[in-house]
Structure formats: C-alpha cells, structure tokens
Input
Amino acid sequence: MKTNEGYPVQEFKIELHNLEETPLHAFVKNLVANKLNFMTPQELFYKATTWEEADKKFPIKESFSGLPEKNVIYNHLPRQSYNNKVFMERAIRLSEIVMKPDICILDADFKPHAIFEIIVTSKPKIGNLIALIEAEVNVIFIYAEDVIINLAKNFNQHESWGNHFKCFTGWSAKDSLRTKVSRSIDMLMADKFPAKHHDILEKEIRKNKDVYNLNIRTREEGWIPHIGSKKGKPTSTLNALLKYYAEKMGASTADMMTVEFVVGKTWTNYPDPFHVGTVLKASQGEKTLFTNRGAAIINQTNHQNISDGEKVSFVCGTSNYGKNGQTQYYANHIAGEKIFNKVWELE
Output
C-alpha cells in the first residue's frame, strides 16, 4: 500500500444495547483488526521498503527523547505482515481452555501467534487470563478509550504507525512468568487509583491470613497497600492471580528485619494505625542493622491497640518506604509469632 492510498472500504454493523459488547468495543476491535491486516512496512517507517528493513534499521523511538517508545503494539509483537492471518472472535484452544479472544493472529499452522483483548467495561476472567499467561503466545491489552481518537482520526494516514499504534500493556511469548503476571496486574487495576494517574514503580505480594494482598510503590505515596486487593474477595480476578503467582513461585524473606520499637504517638485515621517513635534496634538474625533511629511504622499486624510509650517488637521490611526524608516501614507481624512473613516481588 502506498502512503497516499486508503484502505479498502469495508462495512461493519454495531448492535446497540447488546450486553455482551459495547459500540466502543466493537469499533476499536474492527479498527485494530483491519490495521493489523493491512499494515505495511512503509506505514511503520516511510523509508522502509521491507519488513526486515523496518525491523533492523528503524527502531521505534520517541521523537523528542530518542528513548524507546512506550506502550506500542510492536513492543510485544514481531514486525511482519499479518495479511489474511487476523481473525475476530475466533474460537481457539489455549492450555485446555477454549476461548474467543477479541482478535487473534494465527501462524502458518493455524496456531495462536498473538492475542488482543480490547477492554471497555469487562476484563478477562481468571481462567482465561492464566491460560494466556501459560501459553507461548504474544498477548496485548488495549483500553479502548485510550486509543479510539488516534485510531479513528489517523486511520488512513500511512506514516509513523509504529509510534501511533498504541496499547496499554502486553508481553511477548518468551517473557518470564514474573513479567506476564506483573503486566496482567497492571491491566486489571489500570482503570482504578493509583494506576490510572500514577506511575507504579514497584509491586510486591504479601500474604495476610488466607488472602494475598498487593503492595505498590508510587513516586507520590511511597509504599501503600492496594485497596482493591486488600478489600477484594479471595475469589476476585486480582486476588486469584496473586494467589496463582505466589503458589507458583518461592517467597523471599531476605528483606525482613526485626525491630524493637518504642511508640511515641499513634494516628488512627488511616486504613492501618500509623505509629511514630524510635527504633531502638533493628536486626536480621544475629546481625544488627541500626540502632536508635526515628521512624514511622504502619501497623498491619493483629496487635493494633498499642498505647503511646509502649515497646513492641515488630517484623518489618528492610526497604525504606518513606519519602521526603522520613523513614517508614510496614509492620507485618509481631516478632516471635509463628508466622513466616512471605514476600513475592514483581517487576
């Protein structure tokens, strides 16, 4: 296709009031599928005449910073022709589960090569999500409202679509389990605070009784528990995914320390009691990490009716969770309790 040509005119119908699919979902699904089907190397980079040339000579970078472009489909998908290999709502089998992804690309043997899920109001169920994670297939998630204007406005413009063809997140078939689960978590909570308007710098899973909770670190808040997993049901998709990963992977306890802490003052107008005081001694086994340091401790233990001036021994993470020069730690349980605090780190 030349850069001054338009795509073949096609007609598709949208069913209004269909509870299974919104008009926005149908529109974005059709646009993405058609763009994939008709994409040419010249559209990725107007100087490229072949896909090999586009892949080798023209890396997809931000125009201003020169850094690799973020959140584009071709971060997770090989740059090549998919003409006549793109299908919408086609039944496929992954990990013994039959599903109908919004869009799929099949290889020459009609096996799944890539799967696209368009998200408006509903997200993949846990069974389908785990099947996507475990299969050797490229997976891409697209939030429809994030791409609709660019897709609709620039659809027949045939330049720089390597940068324009956006997604929310995804993974390549060869990515690690840790990467796939971490990006699945991003997708599940993307439309809720703090993922929608805040960069999540780090994530970790911590077990609280029978529920696996998610802790996240943002530049604005430091480390905070993700409310969706803390208040969610154990059977919710997010909590089920956290449990799946935790049971698959070994837990780390290397970042834990025992602190002898004297409470100076307590604030209770937070989700967990917030103690400010002094760490008399922090240790890992026989090793002393530091002594006599002012700190704040976020109390997530079962022992929360602690009086000001009381001395308590907590088990906390060794990382500094605070900001603006403050030192803050999460108290995960009381020292001496027969509980193994487990932490599962994510990217």
Notes: The longest helix spans residues 23-38. Residues 23-175 form one domain. The mean pLDDT is 85. The chain has three domains: 23-175, 196-248, 256-346.
